[in-house]
Write a structure and sequence with these properties.
Layout: H1 19-38, H2 50-67, H3 81-89, H4 102-120, H5 132-152, E1 159-160, H6 165-170, H7 195-198, H8 213-218, E2 222-225, E3 228-231, H9 235-245, H10 260-272, H11 281-298, H12 305-315, H13 320-331, H14 338-347, H15 353-356, H16 361-371, H17 377-389
Antiparallel strand pairs: 1-3, 2-3
Helix pairs in contact: 1-2, 1-3, 2-3, 4-5, 5-9, 9-11, 11-13, 12-17, 13-14, 14-16, 16-17
Length: 390
C-alpha cells in the first residue's frame, strides 16, 4: 500500500483523460509491475524488460497520434484515449511492438479474452466436447455475424434487438420474418460461402452434437440485456466489420487472399450502403497494413494491398459519405505513410469544397498531386494509375 500511495499512480477521470496522462499511467503501471516481479511478488510470473515497456509506450503514442480526435464529426472520437489506454494496459508488455497496428492491438485483446474465458470454463462445460480452438472459431464467427447484423440496422446502431438474435444464429440464410435473404448479407456472392454466412448454431434445446449459440455467446465479447445484444465496446462492431468480415472473409481469424477481385468486392459492398462502412474504415486500413508488413518481409517488391484499395477508393469517390469513408481510411495511416498523408492533405486542400462537390473528388486529388513540385516514385505511380482510370 505504501507503493500505491507514493505517487506512482494518479487518480484519473476517464472523461477528461488526455494522452500525456495516459502515457504516464502506462509507464507507472508497468514500472510498478517490474518492481513487484523483482521482489518476487508478481503473482503471474510475467517477465518483461524496460525495452518491452518502451514498446508499449511507443505503440500507445503512435496509435494516439493516429486516432485521438479522429471521428465522423468534430466532436466524436471513433476510438477514445481511455479505451486505447485500457486495451494497451491489459496486455503483457512484449505482446506487441511499437510498430503494431490498431488491428494487432484489438486482435491481441480479443485473443486474450477468448483464451481466458474458454480455458476458465473448461471444467464447467458439462456435455461440451468441442476443442478449444473450435470454440474460438465459433465465437469469432458469431461475433462477426452479429456485428454485421448490428451494422445493417444503421451507421449509428450499437445493438441488435433481442428478438433478432436467435434467428440470426440459427437461420443465417433466411430472414424468418420475410423468408428472404437477411439484410446483412452483401448483394454479390464473393463471400457467401464463409461460415459467417453459413454456420448453423443450434439452440440449447437441440441435441445435435454442436455447442449451442447461448454458450458461444457466454464466452464472447457480447452482452445481453432487455434492450438487446451489444459488444462490450462499440468499436468492436467496427473491428469485426472492417478487419474481419472484409479481410478474413473465408474464415474469421485467418487472412484471406486480397487481390483485384477482392478490391472490386469491397468497392461494390461500399457502394451498396456507404454510410455504414465509414466507421469500420480505419480497422480495414490497419488490417491491410498488418498484411503489407508481413508480405514485404518475404517479397519487398510486392504490391501494397492498402495502397491499391486507396486508389480504388479515390477513383470511385462520388458522395459525401464516400468522402467520410476515404477521410477515415486515409487519416488512420497518414502519420506513418507518405502516400496516405498526401491523399489526406489533398482532400482537405480546399476545406469544405469536396463536401459540397463530392463528385469532383478524383479530379481534385489528381489536381493536387499534379501541383506538387516533386513526387516520389510511389506517388507518381499512384497518380499515373489514377489518371488512366479516370
Amino acid at each position: 500500500m505504501r507503493e500505491l500511495k507514493s505517487g506512482n499512480f494518479g487518480v484519473y477521470d476517464l472523461f477528461s483523460l488526455d494522452v500525456a496522462q495516459a502515457t504516464a499511467y502506462l509507464t507507472n503501471k508497468h514500472h510498478f509491475e517490474r518492481q513487484l516481479e523483482e521482489g518476487g511478488l508478481h503473482q503471474h510470473g510475467v517477465t518483461f524488460t524496460e525495452g518491452d515497456v518502451g514498446d508499449v509506450i511507443a505503440l500507445f503514442e503512435n496509435l494516439s497520434r493516429n486516432f485521438a480526435g479522429v471521428g465522423t464529426t468534430d466532436r466524436e472520437s471513433l476510438i477514445s484515449t481511455p479505451l486505447l489506454m485500457h486495451f494497451v494496459s491489459i496486455l503483457p508488455p512484449g505482446t506487441l511492438t511499437s510498430d503494431s497496428t490498431l488491428y494487432d492491438l484489438y486482435n491481441a485483446v480479443i485473443n486474450q479474452h477468448l483464451d481466458r474465458e474458454i480455458n476458465s470454463r473448461s471444467h464447467t462445460r458439462s456435455g461440451i466436447s468441442t476443442p478449444n480452438e473450435e470454440l474460438r472459431q465459433l465465437a469469432l464467427v458469431a461475433m462477426t455475424r452479429i456485428a454485421l447484423a448490428i451494422q445493417s440496422q444503421g451507421a449509428d446502431a450499437t445493438r441488435l434487438p433481442p428478438k433478432l438474435l436467435s434467428p440470426l444464429l440459427t437461420s443465417p440464410r433466411n430472414d424468418p420474418q420475410t423468408g428472404q435473404t437477411p439484410g446483412w448479407w452483401p448483394a454479390d456472392t464473393f463471400c457467401h460461402s464463409s461460415p459467417v454466412h453459413t454456420q448453423f448454431f443450434p439452440t440449447s434445446s437441440q441435441n445435435c452434437g454442436s455447442v449451442s449459440w447461448d454458450k458461444v455467446i457466454s464466452f464472447s465479447l457480447l452482452k445481453q440485456t432487455d434492450e438487446g445484444v451489444s459488444f462490450n465496446h462499440d468499436s468492436l462492431i467496427y473491428f469485426f466489420c472492417g478487419a474481419v468480415a472484409l479481410v478474413e472473409y473465408e474464415v474469421p481469424g485467418r487472412t484471406s487472399r486480397c487481390g483485384d477481385d477482392w478490391c472490386q468486392h469491397v468497392i461494390a459492398r461500399f457502394k451498396e450502403r456507404t454510410d455504414i462502412w465509414v466507421k469500420p474504415a480505419p480497422f480495414l486500413a490497419h488490417r491491410l497494413q498488418t498484411i503489407d508488413v508481413l508480405v514485404s518481409k518475404h517479397s519487398p517488391n510486392s504490391t501494397s494491398i492498402k495502397s491499391e484499395l486507396l486508389l480504388q477508393l479515390v477513383r470511385h469517390g462520388r458522395t459525401e459519405d464516400w468522402f467520410d469513408l476515404l477521410n477515415l481510411y486515409s487519416s488512420s495511416l497518414k502519420n506513418g505513410d507518405e502516400l496516405f498523408a498526401i491523399i489526406w492533405r489533398a482532400m482537405h486542400n480546399h476545406p469544405g469544397y469536396l463536401r459540397q462537390y463530392p463528385d469532383d473528388l478524383p479530379a481534385e486529388i489528381a489536381r493536387y498531386l499534379l501541383s506538387l513540385p516533386e513526387r516520389s516514385d510511389r506517388l507518381q505511380n499512384f497518380l499515373d494509375h489514377l489518371l488512366r482510370q479516370k
